């Protein structure tokens, strides 16, 4: 399954990058392709392209704040959780994404 996502926390430092890493590790362990954009204090990194989004089966938003360019996910299956959820239960979250995407 192909997953794209965004992580962003209120301060834009630790939780943003922890959530990204946890999601990437859990998805790879499940055999998925994943790309997670971070929107932290230093701006957008690992930015998702329109091709990345178009090819994705599902979108995960691990965010605690309003993110930039959320409208680009319109029409996709989107799951929104807090960064804490992504950090504390990444494997359960990836399993839930499989259920929702039907894959």
UniProtKB/TrEMBL annotation:
Q: Does the keyword Kinase apply?
A: yes
The species this protein belongs to is: Bombiscardovia apis
**Gene3D superfamilies documented for this protein:** 3.40.50.2300
What InterPro entries does this protein's entry cite?
Bacterial_PTS_Sugar_Transport, PTS_EIIB-like_sf, PTS_EIIB_2, PTS_EIIB_2/3, PTS_IIB_fruc
Q: Where is the PTS EIIB type-2 domain?
A: 1-99
Q: List the keywords (alphabetical).
A: Kinase, Phosphoprotein, Phosphotransferase system, Sugar transport, Transferase, Transport
Signal peptide interval = none
Do you know which Pfam families this protein is assigned to? PTS_IIB
This chain's protein is named PTS fructose transporter subunit IIB
């Amino acid at each position: 399954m192909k997953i794209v996502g965004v992580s962003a926390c209120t301060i834009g430092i630790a939780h943003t990058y922890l959530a990204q890493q946890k999601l990437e590790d859990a998805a790879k362990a499940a055999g998925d392709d994943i790309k997670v954009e971070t929107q932290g204090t230093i701006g957008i990194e690992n930015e998702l392209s329109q091709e990345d989004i178009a090819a994705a089966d599902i979108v995960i938003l691990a965010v605690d704040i309003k993110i930039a360019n959320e409208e680009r996910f319109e029409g996709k299956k989107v799951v929104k959780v807090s960064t804490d959820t992504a950090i504390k239960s990444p494997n359960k979250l990836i399993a839930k994404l499989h259920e929702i995407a039907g894959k």
